[in-house]
UniProtKB/TrEMBL annotation:
<dbReference type="GO" id="GO:0006417">
    <property type="term" value="P:regulation of translation"/>
</dbReference>
<dbReference type="InterPro" id="IPR005872">
    <property type="entry name" value="SUI1_arc_bac"/>
</dbReference>
<dbReference type="GO" id="GO:0002188">
    <property type="term" value="P:translation reinitiation"/>
</dbReference>
<keyword id="KW-0648">Protein biosynthesis</keyword>
<dbReference type="GO" id="GO:0003729">
    <property type="term" value="F:mRNA binding"/>
</dbReference>
<feature type="domain" description="SUI1">
    <location>
        <begin position="39"/>
        <end position="105"/>
    </location>
</feature>
<dbReference type="GO" id="GO:0003743">
    <property type="term" value="F:translation initiation factor activity"/>
</dbReference>
<keyword id="KW-0396">Initiation factor</keyword>
<keyword id="KW-0810">Translation regulation</keyword>
<dbReference type="InterPro" id="IPR036877">
    <property type="entry name" value="SUI1_dom_sf"/>
</dbReference>
<protein>
    <submittedName>
        <fullName>Translation initiation factor SUI1</fullName>
    </submittedName>
</protein>
<comment type="similarity">
    <text>Belongs to the SUI1 family.</text>
</comment>
<dbReference type="InterPro" id="IPR050318">
    <property type="entry name" value="DENR/SUI1_TIF"/>
</dbReference>
<dbReference type="GO" id="GO:0001731">
    <property type="term" value="P:formation of translation preinitiation complex"/>
</dbReference>
<dbReference type="Pfam" id="PF01253">
    <property type="entry name" value="SUI1"/>
</dbReference>
<dbReference type="InterPro" id="IPR001950">
    <property type="entry name" value="SUI1"/>
</dbReference>
Amino acid sequence: MRLFEGTAWDKPPVCDRCGKLEKECRCPPLPLAPEKQPLKLAMEKRAKGKMVTVVRGFTDIDLHQQALLAELKGACGAGGSISEEGIEIQGDHRDRLRKLLVAKGFPVKG
């Protein structure tokens, strides 16, 4: 007889979404809630004097951030991209981005 036989600890952990063992599970990790991702806004100067507003602090760049990028670009009327630093929007749009991100539930600094 084993010590934890018949209890919840006797069974190996399984994924809540797919039901497979955690070792075999290939489900993508769940993104953090917006209120748990404090973001920082910063202005940076790029080549030829171009200004870029950078939003840093995302825990992971995935489809949710790509949808957010499209929304931010549309609201600012500017181009932008996702880099390893975070989301970059062309031009100085700190005030507008701060309002949009706070409305979405993100705590924003800078």
